[in-house]
Design a protein that fits this description.
Chain A: This is Extracellular solute-binding protein. The complex is a heterotrimer of chains A (440), B (277) and C (296). Chain A has 440 residues and is of the alpha/beta class. Chain A is 45% helix and 14% strand. Chain A folds into two domains: 38-154 and 324-365, D-Maltodextrin-Binding Protein, domain 2, CATH 3.40.190; 159-320 and 381-436, 3-Layer(aba) Sandwich (D-Maltodextrin-Binding Protein, domain 2). In chain A, helix 9 packs across helix 11 and helix 11 packs across helix 18. Chains in contact: A-B, A-C, B-C.
């Protein structure tokens, strides 16, 4: 029996066809004419600054530039770090990319155009309009000293948002220390059973537990995080161990509520929004809660919300947070319209666009001379809260220049400490993880 | 088996029958509890309005029907590749005589347990090199690669049970193996093909890993992936939270339909792909 | 058995060509790529890889979380096997005894197994939340406040929660048993019944031993499946609290999807996981071959 020609032909054709089908998706041209209508592809993540907020700036920009259309692909924040390198590698056209100022920036810098290549396409003087601190932080992101993106917005963590109406009803001032928090918890238990004293992203989003622990550590040692991040400092220092010990004690004393540590990000937001928690700890990016417009649009029924620093373990004057650039804007090499992209970047970072997207707060623009307002001065708690946050952001104890996977790992261990395990052991494990180098 | 003879003997006595009924009913209720809890959350805040609003204002801008469609399209690629590979391979392992056949067959099914997460890194690279991100081919192919060992096993088991005499006549008559394969084996193997077909669709519907990693475009979201995508698109409002719960209920619908209409195929598909002789 | 015909070897090669292609591209290439990458420190962009020798493997084998993950994989598999050999078996036998509402029962037990596992895991994680979860709320509603637990954040309970979730997915084992029960000769049962044995005794001492080959099938299927299903953990406990419920799937996934040069490390983890998975398969093949040999 021999192989018939037919058999061979059919099988060979099958193999060839499957290969051809697999390879048919070829790259697209990069040259562009700028006279006709163009579509700029913008990629951001949720909360950077958020689809609705960005839309205000985009709408205003495209109104002035009728030949430009801008599409905003808003990737879920949790997926962003994995998806963007993938898209860039795949040759996807992205004209403007929101670059996360963490290890991520360094990781993808080879696929970004240096700012020096498109600085000339921005209105002159743009580079001088950024806050000097923001520009300084931006430079720290890239190991070769070049700039591959420009500052867009700032944020910090952790900070507290409180249900001002509820505190007023109870006759309680916003807590300054965790002793105050425990007292508030008692009051709530008597007068509002079922309402947790505070809630924060935890459970599946335990990365925030790292943020919170670092905020406490900053009360003991202002330079703790910067030392680790920039000077090869130790993680398992007495200051950090002390912070973990305090945290465990706070939960034990009722200053924070153990029953809500399985609540994830969305769950924490929902609890606060529906009045089931008096205080929400989160990053300053959540300051949209201070905007009456935002609350109305998202059907959040809270009548008044204030903001405060994370309470102190002992000395209220030590209250602070870590802050850093949260979003920077760059132009990938896969951009089709880099010239127009540069102009748009200038508009949303230092131009009129900044005021538009930041109208409901959330992210704070990195442009000089911007002041946080809620849009309605009759909301006194909100106005004061916005000012509190802006003040905190300008005087952080450390940079919130996070270490991605390591932060998530630390968060899990913090949760375990809250559950009762030994702070010193946990700190030691974190140090070991950091030393191993497997997370960065 | 009828209730009288066979296993019916087990609960012949009235008291035993009662106990069995109560135990089964209690277990079933336990199994329904998660479903009930999902439904309860789905009806919070806005009641049925949650479901309605998912159609007018989909979460994350992705309509649910679109996620079904994507799962089905991935399933088509998945099924086509698995059948295209497993049918001839099953025939070869079951009906052709050649040196090293057993060794090769066992080498093939050694890959039954390969976890997708373990080959995530290289497949990411392969998919990228082939330019298959955000395509149905890009999802369907890795799904198929993981199913192929099972498919070959199922088809070989089936071929084993087809009497040699049936094919021998054709081969001796001078028809090539290709003719014997296409004209005799494939039609005979129809039940096995249908089973494998249903299984592939089921697994495409369940696949979470490949879509989550290889899709960046919202319009490519699949039903399983949507569980996470929708969650990540949630805003702080209680309305959204209830809408998310409602979407979870809707995402379970295809499985219910699959059970109602395809239970028979799944049962026989699973059992004929079992490692047994 | 028919004799071997000339040229059949070449025909076989052609019939197996698509299989070779898939295996070459998706498995052979993958393994080769993984082994190469596992000795480097590199990010998902795969550029500027730095050779680090055996460092990744050293780190992995000294990482308690990784070893816990492998142990958990086997423990979870063992738990779901145990549940299947008892609960699923009993359900299948009861349903085969001609009890009313069979189709409905099958549907109830099978639907969870066919639903995207991601979805079931998500529903469980919401159901098990301490304050708003349906389980605790249900317990409180019937006055059993004492039984409410931190299902997801207490190590022991979180571990049990994952096992409960796996137990919830026993629809497929039920199907295996159902199919094989239908082919079982029942005359032995009649003898047992005549001897006056009760239903439980018959189930345990007569039917269960007769289903030996199905037990093996179920065991192997679950063992194989346990390496694949990582959503079960990812979307319920997320591997927490502090990695106590981590499995190899979630461990690797975490390193692949995080930013930074973690891909070399993830590749080394993958290589070790593949070795374990292949070992499990070898055991399975050995078992099958012995059975095959014995039956001839």
């Amino acid at each position: 029996m021999t192989i018939s020609r037919m058999t061979f032909a059919v099988l060979a054709a099958g193999v060839v066809m499957s290969l051809a089908a697999a390879c048919s998706n070829s790259g697209s041209g990069t040259d562009a004419s700028t006279t006709g209508p163009i579509t700029l592809k913008l990629w951001t993540w949720t909360g950077a600054p958020g689809g609705e907020a960005m839309k205000r700036a985009i709408d205003a920009y495209t109104k002035d530039h009728p030949n430009v259309t801008i599409t905003n692909t808003e990737v879920a924040a949790a997926d962003f770090k994995a998806k963007v390198p993938l898209a860039l590698k795949g040759g996807e056209q992205i004209d403007v990319l929101a670059v996360q100022p963490s290890l991520f920036a360094e990781q993808i810098k080879d696929q970004l155009l240096p700012v020096s290549a498109w600085e000339k396409d921005m209105p002159s003087g743009t580079m001088n309009k950024f806050q000097p601190l923001a520009l300084e932080q931006n430079k720290k992101l890239y190991s070769d000293g070049q700039l591959y993106s420009v500052p867009f917005g700032l944020s910090g963590s952790a900070v507290g948002f409180y249900n001002a109406a509820l505190l007023k009803e109870l006759g309680v001032q916003p807590p300054q220390t965790f002793t105050d928090m425990a007292a508030l918890a008692k009051t709530l238990k008597d007068k509002k059973p079922g309402v947790a004293v505070a809630v924060m992203p935890s459970g599946a989003d335990s990365w925030f537990q790292d943020e919170f622990a670092l905020t406490l550590a900053g009360q003991n040692d202002k330079d703790f995080f910067n030392n680790v991040r920039y000077h090869n400092g130790k993680w398992d220092t007495p200051a950090y161990e002390q912070a973990l010990t305090s945290l465990r004690k706070i939960y034990a004393d009722g200053g924070l509520d153990k029953n809500v540590i399985d609540v994830d990000y969305a769950g924490a937001e929902e609890k606060f929004a529906t009045g089931k928690a008096a205080i929400l700890f989160n990053g300053t990016w959540d300051s949209t809660l201070l905007s009456p417009d935002f609350r109305k649009a998202n059907k959040i029924a809270l009548t008044s919300v204030g903001a405060m620093p994370v309470p102190a373990v002992s000395d209220p004057s030590a209250r602070s947070l870590r802050s850093f650039l949260d979003v920077t804007m760059g132009i990938p090499k896969t951009a089709k319209y880099s010239k127009e992209a540069a102009d748009f970047i200038a508009y949303v970072t230092t131009g009129a666009g900044a005021d538009l997207w930041s109208k409901n707060l959330g992210l704070f623009p990195a442009v000089q001379g911007w002041t946080a307002r809620t849009g309605d001065p009759s909301f006194a708690d909100e106005e004061a809260g916005a000012k509190t946050i802006q003040a905190l952001l300008t005087s952080p104890h450390s940079d919130r220049n996070n270490m991605s996977a390591f932060s998530a790992e630390v968060g899990k261990k913090v949760l375990k400490v809250i559950g009762g395990s030994d702070p010193a052991t946990a700190a030691k494990e974190m140090q070991d993880d950091l030393d191993s180098g497997k997370f960065n | 088996m009828s209730a009288r003879g066979g296993f019916g003997l087990l609960i012949r006595r009235r008291r035993d029958r009662r106990i069995a009924q109560v135990m089964l009913a209690a277990t079933a209720l336990l199994w329904l509890f998660p479903a009930w809890s999902a439904l309860r959350e789905a009806l919070k805040v806005d009641g049925l309005g949650n479901f309605v609003s998912l159609f007018s204002n989909p979460l994350g801008g992705i309509p649910i029907w679109r996620t079904y469609l994507n799962s089905v399209l991935n399933g088509i690629v998945h099924t086509a590749v698995v059948l295209g590979v497993s049918l001839p391979a099953g025939y070869a392992f079951g009906k052709l005589r050649f040196r090293g056949r057993e060794t090769l067959f066992y080498a093939t099914i050694l890959f039954l347990a390969i976890p997708g997460t373990a080959i995530l890194v290289p497949l990411y690279h392969v998919t990228q090199e082939l330019g298959l991100f955000n395509t149905h081919l890009g999802i369907g192919l890795p799904e198929a690669a993981l199913t192929v060992p099972f498919g070959v096993l199922l088809m070989r088991n089936y071929a084993d049970n087809v009497p040699d005499t049936l094919l021998e006549a054709a081969v001796v008559d001078g028809a090539g193996h290709l003719q014997t394969f296409t004209r005799i084996f494939v039609p005979i193997a129809r039940p096995a093909i249908v089973n494998l077909f249903v299984m592939c669709f089921m697994w495409s519907l369940q696949d979470f890993l490949w879509p989550t990693v290889f899709n960046t475009h919202p319009e490519m979201t699949t039903a399983a992936q949507a569980v996470a995508t929708f969650h990540n698109a949630l805003s702080a409002s209680p309305v959204d939270s209830a809408r998310y719960s409602a979407s979870l209920v809707l995402l379970a619908l295809p499985a219910v339909l699959l059970v109602v209409f395809g239970q028979r195929f799944i049962t026989s598909g699973l059992t004929s792909g079992a490692i047994k002789d | 058995m028919r004799r071997k015909l000339p040229g059949e070897g070449r025909t076989a090669v052609l019939f197996l060509a698509p299989l070779f292609l898939v295996y070459a591209l998706y498995f052979a290439y993958s393994f080769w790529f993984l082994i190469g990458t596992s000795f480097t420190k590199v990010s998902i962009g795969f550029s500027n890889a730095v050779a680090v020798g055996w460092k990744n493997y050293r780190l992995l084998l000294t990482d308690p979380a990784f070893l816990t993950a492998i142990r958990n994989n086997l423990l979870f598999a063992a738990a779901s096997i145990a549940v299947s050999l008892t609960v699923a078996f009993a359900i299948a036998v009861l349903l085969a005894s001609g009890i009313g509402g069979r189709r409905l029962y099958y549907a109830i037990f099978l639907v969870p197994a066919l639903t995207p596992i991601a979805l079931v895991a998500t529903v469980f994680s919401r159901m098990l939340q301490y304050q708003d979860g349906a389980l605790n709320q249900g317990l409180r509603a019937i006055g059993l406040d004492g039984l409410t637990e931190h299902w997801l954040t207490d190590s022991g309970w979180a571990f049990l929660a994952v096992i409960g979730l796996l137990a919830y997915l026993i629809g497929l084992p039920i199907m295996y048993y159902t199919a094989d029960l239908a082919a079982l000769r029942t005359d032995v049962l009649e003898a047992a019944v005549l001897d006056g044995a009760g239903p439980l005794l018959i189930m345990r001492n007569v039917i269960h031993p007769m289903m030996r080959s199905t037990h093996i099938t179920v065991t192997l299927a679950l063992l194989l499946g346990s390496f694949r299903a990582f959503e079960v953990v990812l979307l319920s406990t997320g591997g927490g609290p502090d990695n106590t419920t981590e499995i190899v799937g979630t461990y690797t996934y975490r390193f692949v999807t995080s930013a930074g040069s973690t891909i070399g490390y993830a590749s080394a983890a993958s290589v070790l996981v593949l070795i374990v998975a292949m070992l499990v398969s070898v055991v399975q093949v050995l078992v099958t071959r012995t059975k095959r040999g014995a039956s001839r």
